[in-house]
Amino acid sequence: SALIVLLGVFERGDDRLDRPLADVAKLIKLAEDLQDELTKNDRHVLSLSALKKCDEIEKLAKKLKGRIRK
User: Shortest CA distance to 34 belongs to which of 11, 60, 10?
Assistant: First the structure.
């Protein structure tokens, strides 16, 4: 998956990637929380908290992508 690829990039020990390690952990946590919420609730209706988590995941993923490309 894409997260495994990201984690592989971060394991190289590049100094510019120190901060993103915390962001990757946060991204994984958000994705797991979202998955839990979706499995507990009706899959056809998204709650506001699920939508907010989706937005946070998207923003964090874009931020990480930008840092990796620099």
Answer: 60
The residue with tokens 């993923």 is: 61
13: left (phi over 0), alpha (psi -120 to 50) or beta: left
Task: Tell me the CA distances in angstroms from 20 to 13, 29, 49, 56, one per residue in order.
Answer: 12, 14, 24, 15
**Alpha-carbon gap, residue 38 to 32, rounded angstroms:** 10
Of 39, 33, 30, nearest to 59 (Cα)? 30
Condensed to tens digits (0 to 9), the pLDDT of residues 12-32 reads 555 555 677 888 889 999 999
Question: pTM for the full model?
Answer: 0.68
Distance CA 36, CA 68 (A): 28
